[in-house]
Design goal:
31% strand; five-stranded antiparallel sheet; alpha+beta; 5 strands; Nuclear Transport Factor 2, Chain: A
């Protein structure tokens, strides 16, 4: 796996930095188990409200997908961009049967000292 560096570039999108990939994978694994509220908690990830969890679950159901874990190819197409104080991140999602699908996970990542905090913003078809 190629190590992708972290940059603060307001002009260009970049691939998702390697430093966030494990946490993002854990988020998607929780969603693939139907845990849209991330009830077990994931270090560095903001809590998800019951209302937001329900919306995301409904979006997946309406799309007709069975979310799968993130394969390595996710990191070739998922992107982020620095937005004056945080990164907006779009992660391409996969279905257990069909592979790549149109649903994306929208995250906001911010710095907290020498750590990163991830806020799940939405799961939708852009």
């Amino acid at each position: 796996m190629t190590q992708e560096p972290l940059r603060k570039d307001e002009e260009r999108q970049q691939l998702v930095p390697s430093v966030w990939r494990t946490t993002i994978t854990e988020i998607v694994q929780a969603f693939s188990r139907g845990d849209f509220g991330i009830n077990q908690g994931i270090a560095g990830v903001h809590p998800i409200s019951p209302e937001q969890a329900a919306r995301m679950s409904q979006n997946v159901e309406a799309y007709g997908a069975r979310l799968a874990g993130l394969p390595e190819e996710t990191w070739r197409t998922s992107v982020c961009q620095w937005m004056q104080g945080h990164w907006d991140v779009l992660v391409d999602l996969y279905d257990e049967v069909h592979g790549a699908i149109d649903l994306v996970l929208h995250l906001r990542v911010s710095e907290d000292g020498n750590m990163y905090k991830i806020e799940v913003r939405s799961l939708h078809v852009p």
